[in-house]
Give the backbone structure.
Amino acid sequence: MAYSSEEIMETINMVENLHFDIRTVTLGISLLDCGDPDSKKAAQKIYDKITKTGEQLISTVRNMEKTYGIPIVNTRVAVTPISLLDHHYSADDFLEIAYALDQAADTLGIDFLGGFSALIQKGFTHGDLNLISAIPRALSSTKKVCSSLNVASTKAGINMNAINQAAAAIKEAAKLTADEHGIACAKLVVFANAPEDNPFMAGAFHGVGEAETAINIGISGPGVVRATIERCPNHNLGELAEEIKKTVFKITRAGELIGRKVSKKLGVTFGIVDLSLAPTPAHGDSVANILEAMGLESCGAHGTTAALALLNDAVKKGGAMASSSVGGLSGSFIPVSEDAGMIRAVECGALTLNKLEAMTAVCSVGLDMIAVPGETPAEIIAALIADEMAIGVVNNKTTAVRIIPVPNKSVGEKVSFGGLLGEAPIMAVNPYSPKIFVERGGRIPAPFRALTN
């Protein structure tokens, strides 16, 4: 892959002035050979494999930063969904494995480790149920372990029993970390159509269809894209989309270069480049600001969903032009607490939970890093999740919910999580009860479009 001097200079400008970075280098590791009837032995095998496989990860990433001058913000590991290792493990067995995962992450010096997860879109094994019951304790007593639950898919439909289990786990995780504003919930994502190669936390896991090991890259450049739009004040929307595609093409080229170099150095498979525009609380690094640069007075105004659809489509097309290895989620994240523009839009009343839900029909993920009152009942959380899963299932796309019922906080207050998690205004939920509906349980059947064989 040859790079012209012009491309190199453009990349330097993007890094120095427009917040361009590699948001994450994520090493995927299969743990399918680490199962053992004795959970203590399994935990040791898991620790040993992760630390041996990833021992050069941090040093390699730092060398790439130094060599190419592109910041790499996070280094992470994703592992096989832990519930698959042994369906006979108890909740305490899974908790022991969570501690081993956290210890391995600490030994490697990585930021997060994902994969304390279960795939339960159609039903449960005994192990799945026990892992779910362990999630609140695991996430509240570890620092770097992240968890995900895939509760729906276009092929299987929506597992309402799983959603109710997830909502109960969210409430308990918030309670166990009440002194930290329910921070454990920020490490738990509930998915429909979860991708097996997503490098972003908290939803990353190493799918069973993946290679033994793989490097997946998550790139991000909201500031770069916003600057492109600001240079085009008189372009119509079609012309604007073309300019965004050209910019994302350049970003993708840089990201793939880093990914292939890291994978070659480590001797593992190169997986994918995830093109997601992932914001941070830093000024100028906001997806909301991109939408406003298109001509909206505020993110959340009428027209926001259409603007986001344009952005998401252009991001995907620009990346596909640059690489045949595009994967993961790829598009635009809209996490409220992690995006300064989203926070401002909520605070001024322009952006509501209902509008966010509409936006998730066209964005990469879903209702992400949403803070709601701590007293929000589990059935309302379950219903919020079910609505988002329905959008994913019917539209054959990935959707997700990362929601935090913040203990002792009410609408109008704000909570600070620190770092990349930022701060979030407490958003109002619809108070009318869905209790009878969600407690029916069962499975909402797959849509007719699932019959594609």
Remarks:
- The longest helix spans residues 237-266.
- The chain has a mean pLDDT of 90.
- The radius of gyration is 21 Å.
- The chain has two domains: 26-192, 217-447.
